[in-house]
Amino acid sequence: MSGPSNKTYDKQNPAFYALLVALVLMAVGPIYLMLVTSLKLNVDIMSDTSRLFFMPTLRNYETALCDFLWYEPEHIRRCDPTFGRALTNSLIIGLISTAITLVIGTMAAYALVRFRFMGRDVVSIWTLMMRMVPPAVLLVPVFGIWTFQFGIDGSRGGIILVYVALNLPFVIWILQSFIVQVPIQLEEAARMDGAGPFQVFFLVVLPLIKPGIAAASIFTFRVAWNEFLLANALSDRNSRTVPVTIVNSLTEFDIDWGVIMATGMLLAIPPIIFTFVASRQIITGMTAGAVKG
Amino acid sequence: MSVARAARLTPYMFLAPAALVLAVALFYPICYMIYASFLDWNPSQRIGEAEFVGLRNYIKLFGDPNFRESLWVTLKFAGIVVTLEMFIGVGLALLLDRNIRGMSVLRTLFILPMMIAPIVVGLMWRYMYHPTVGIFNKTLTNLGFDTIPWLSDGNWAFASVIIADVWQWTPFIFILSLAALQSLPSSAIEASKIDGATGWQQIIYIKLPLMLPVLIVTLLLRLIDSFKVLEVILVMTNGGPGLSTEILSLRINRTASEFRELGEAAAMSNLLLIVLLILTFAMFIYNKAQDARAARLRAVEEEA
Asked: What pLDDT digit, counting tens, does each position of B242-275 carry?
């Protein structure tokens, strides 16, 4: 529209900026409201007045995280370790499943691109089809198989296995598009110098597709971190993840909004950080499917 | 052990782990589900003990008014949500496709709703819709209006769920259409400007037709995803009041865990999968057709 330079900006009319502000408020407003509520005492949440002025407090976070604190907050009579345990589970499950998905996903994507023993069409239709499978559809069979055949229900390993399978198609799909761009001459040169196929892969290819790996790992971790349905079906008391505990505490009649918003905030923080750190990669990952075709 | 043989085996070694995981944890469960949809099976039985009942689960489903209601709610939800999001998202993209400071910050803020856990999104909206402490009813009371039964009345609950989904997913369409707009050939737009096209004419005759391929893929992607929505609604209404917001994936979850009818739940999953399969194939075939058209155009250009 206005030339290649990025430094100059067009002047816009004030109504346009008003619209922008309104949009930003709409997008961020609910998240801000959650943050504010998590910093309020229940007295402040329930009262009709004093909407703008209240004493921010970390009490709700202390209640949620009491297991990890080195001191004992005086307002807690008995520490409930449920949330602390769930947070540990979520972290372990998220990190391990991301690591496994990425390692085997990159290897598979590399093989599919470089050794060309299946048409790219075949692969892309399969990954597309697998990508559209909703977790709700896997609920019944995964529950049945994990419980009766593999005997890994109620363990973290069982949950990790589903998440790896759920994320692999997308990871393979997105990494393919990055690996295609690695010049084959580089690999041939490395092979001439006597590198084996695994050395070529780990020392030459991997460093070149770092941006793709970053995008893929954020998407993978996010799915594992946010997923509820399958974790709910497969976990037992000791392997529950954060989304499961949040939903469980909602079914009680008297909802403690302050604490539940604090736990929601804790669950939301990692994805928010990723978004600010790597929004470019996330947008690349999101648009890869549609815009490139 | 020759070098040549090792080289021939390499691709398989690279592929094996992924293929194994996918086979065990994705293909096998899906086949298992298709088989289970023909069984009368409850969660305390091993699958071998379940009785084979042929198509009974499917016949029962289509005779069940609750299932038909849920199917209707799902289709209504997907249709309304995707239409609204396409209009708002594409509209905003056309409006904001300008050279302004801070566009990347704006885009970053817009992706936040999609990145946050659906559970948390449901939580935030449930809090905002709360009859007494929620921000909407508080504001209405302060302004002297009557409060609205956001989540306790069937029709309002359906609308509330739609609003939450539009909030969460409109940015997806906005970002994809913005990317499409910014990759349009500037020559076409320049040419239309020289010919004296107004802003609206540029949009209707140049920009939208050129964006169409991306828009169609975006529409299909979003449609597929809208059938997967579950957690947000689960937290906000749990399908209620009555069946007013009980979309199919929620009903699958309830049939399996509350009614303990795994066979019926599997049959339902199967139907959902078939719908999504059709949509995915539509998308793939559309993509292929586009590629073929592009190739033909290129060939014509080279001849000329």
From this structure: 788 888 888 888 888 777 788 888 888 888 888 8
The verdict on a CB contact (< 8 Å) between A140 and B276 is no
**End-to-end Cα separation, chain A, in angstroms:** 24
Inter-chain touch A132–B280, beta carbons under 8 Å: yes
B20-303 classified as CATH 1.10.220.30: no
CB A263 within 8 A of CB A80: no
Q: Which chain A residue shows the shortest CA-CA distance from B24?
A: A165
DSSP, collapsed to helix, strand or coil, labels residue B122 as: helix
Which domain CATH number covers A123? 1.10.3720.10
Give tens-digit pLDDT for A268-283.
999 899 888 888 888 8
| Same-domain pairing of A35 and A120 | no
C-alpha torsion angle, residues A70, A73, A76, A81 (rounded to 10):
-20
- A52 and A158 fall within a common domain: no
Query: What average pLDDT does chain B have?
Result: 84
Distance from CA of A95 to the nearest CA of B (A): 16
Residues of A whose CB is below 8 A from B224: 132
Q: Is the pLDDT of residue A5 over 60?
A: no
Quote the ipTM score: 0.84
Q: Nearest chain B Cα to A108, which residue?
A: B15
